[in-house]
Amino acid sequence: MQSQPYRIKKAAVIGAGVMGAAIAAQLANAGIPVLLLDIVLPDNPSAEKPDRNFLAKAGIERALKARPAAFMDPARAGLIEVGNLEDDLKKLKDADWILEAIVEKLDAKRELWEKVEKVAKPSAIISSNSSGIPMHLQIEGRSEDFQRRFVGAHFFNPPRYLHLLEVIPTAKTDPAVLRAFSEFGEKTLGKGIVIANDVPGFVANRIGVYGIVRAMQHMEKTGLTPAEVDQLTGPALGRAKSATFRTADLSGLDIIAKVAQDLGAATPDDEDFTLTGNFLGIVQKGIYGDKTGSGFYKKTKEGGKTKILNLNLQTGEYEDQGKVKVGLVEANKGKPLAERVRAMYAAEGREADFLRGAMNDGFWYAAKMAGNVSNRLQDIDNALKWGFGWEQGPFETMDTLGVQQVIRSLEAEGRTLPPLLAKMKESGRDRFYDGDQTVTPEGEATPYEAPYFILTDLKKDATRVVKKKPGASLVDLGDGVLLVEWHAKMNALGEDQLRMVQEGHKAVGQMGYAGLVIGNQGEHFSAGANLPLILSQAQADEWDELDDMVKQFQQTTTSLRFSPHPTVIAPFGMTLGGGAEFTLHADHVVASAELYMGLVEVGVGLIPGGGGTKEMLLRFTDQLHPGQRVGSSLLPAVQRAFELIGMAKVSTSALEARNLGFLRDHDTVAMNKNHIIQEAKRMVLALAPDYVQPTPRQDIPVMGDAALAALKSALYGMHRGGYITDYDLVVSEQLGKVLSGGTGNNRTAKVSEQHLLDLEREAFLTLLGKKGTQQRIDHMLKTGKPLRN
């Protein structure tokens, strides 16, 4: 039988609860029209005319109000059509993918699938979002054709932000369906795909819940508190801030108890999912975590301030324990992750005993589950990283410690090694991942298959690194494209980063490359300029050096547009200040959908000095009708740029960045952050053949004194009303001078880009010399928060 072309252009979600509505929102974020259905509520005699679509509508309203936001742009909610399972079931015939997210009851799911099979088109992919009910049980009694098109799709909450999507084929799933759906999940929805086996708990929940249960046991054994355990198992270990018990509160203690009990019943005796008496006692009292207002932690408000109280497991009371500090964590603060993990694992004392015991449980169980929950070690690692926010998965962490060291520690505890670790002991291998090799669940060497194009794999071939500095590298991406990669802390922009961009341009010209990509795969694209350096130079009165530095910065940012070859930039995460200014000047932007971009310099008493002020004025002026680009008609463009920069607006997504004006209509938005380098490379190759070097603009219309007077009038009103501070007024006036095109001009004039850049630099240095700005920078460096002076 010939395979169907399984292309998903329209979807349907059945069940408009928390997960169903949020999944529908993510589909809409990706531009996929979606039908959202739920049941019809029983008639309410007091209602004048019952709304049969009430639950689906309520789901969308809940998603629109969700924090963090479920929609990247609220307008995307318009892609969701609502309905109900009685009146609108027939509409499923138009869906290419149908997903259920209803109650976790096997009978309810089977009943639903019987109805769906009667109306779904023959090429539709069918999926369940169940977190625990085996997929093969749901489709018993369905036709062979239905079973062939069925595949589990387990999202993690919230679907927009958690990268993991577990895809669970059954024995009957057509490989073509699995391939097509996995590609859709990764490319269109932006998810990290893990192929899970159809076993209890799948991958992340099976191992994650085991870790929570065992952590509870070790906590009571060592006498630690939940807050101390969270200090040990959070960022100190390279894991999410929610760590163990805050994660439990977020997930729901009742849910964890149910999942643990179900897993305990479905797994062998040596997989100990036994909940402690304290945990069960909490749940029996109706304390379920955030959903009931209290769990291991409880939020209270005193004097308008939120306070976190901690549950005392001995007394059952909530206490203000202040800022909890753990000696083992404090002793290893500031060390790199690998060094920190090794030091804590090898330490002595009850904190280390807890940590080593909990980590060893995780190592032992992950090794035991290899080949059971999934057939690749990297899928297990990725499930924990993408589903729970870990920096390293269990096998990667064992590599950090040394696999043989872990084996010795497990044996010292009297444990029987799982077959994978027994094989590693026999072979003497000390790493699961070694260059381009990894091992199978059976412990045999096999080539490592990267799930997508990532720089860590690229760097395995050292010959591809053309040049390297501590803060930046120049990397050959192949096919005639060079990459400038920044790799400093938060990718703060300093000499290494600027020089590597300049070196990249030079290399393209001298070595015959097609063009340049600016990108990296750090936690954030760039948090902006190197503030400590700027402040120290200002305080040392090194004004000539600072003037040269700002000139160099402007020349480097604008070089992205005016080079003889195409430059494409790939921003993601925090793209602030100077990072945003680089982005604004590229020929093309390939942005991650999760883009937090803004010109935020006013927060430290400055204005954008790397061309950002100039660029926003130019863009907004160009967007006016040609007849409006003269006289007072220019004022809306000036005001728009002034408001954007003066209020330090930051996008909460790439879609919002486009609405704000940071991205242009032709720029690309990629749902999957891990694909942006690859897409940027493709774009360079597309632009290169017919690329014509642009020249700086000489014809930018400005209003001069008229614009500045209008801006000052608004500013003084805001100041009198208490909306802005004294120093906000000082900074805003300097911003107004640049956006007006300079003072002393009472009629419309046309100026060059260089003229605006010179005004920017002058305003930037003027502000940097003021005490108010230096106070703001110092306060930001010390507290991470802006100073309102």
Automatic annotation (TrEMBL):
Q: Which Gene3D superfamilies match?
A: 1.10.1040.50, 2-enoyl-CoA Hydratase, Chain A, domain 1 (3.90.226.10), NAD(P)-binding Rossmann-like Domain (3.40.50.720)
| Top EC class, one word | oxidoreductase
UniProt keyword terms in alphabetical order: NAD, Oxidoreductase
The 3-hydroxyacyl-CoA dehydrogenase NAD binding domain covers: 10-198
Catalytically driven reaction(s): a (3S)-3-hydroxyacyl-CoA + NAD(+) = a 3-oxoacyl-CoA + NADH + H(+)
Question: Locate the Enoyl-CoA hydratase/isomerase domain: which residues?
Answer: 487-613
Record InterPro entries: 3-OHacyl-CoA_DH_NAD-bd (IPR006176), 3HC_DH_C (IPR006108), 6-PGluconate_DH-like_C_sf (IPR008927), ClpP/crotonase-like_dom_sf (IPR029045), ECH_dom (IPR045004), NAD(P)-bd_dom_sf (IPR036291)
Per UniProt, residues of the 3-hydroxyacyl-CoA dehydrogenase C-terminal domain are: 201-298
Q: Which Pfam families match?
A: 3HCDH, 3HCDH_N, ECH_2
Q: What is its EC number?
A: 1.1.1.35
GO MF terms held by the record: (3S)-3-hydroxyacyl-CoA dehydrogenase (NAD+) activity
**What is the protein's given name?**
3-hydroxyacyl-CoA dehydrogenase
**What does UniProt list as this organism's lineage?**
Bacteria, Thermotogati, Deinococcota, Deinococci, Deinococcales
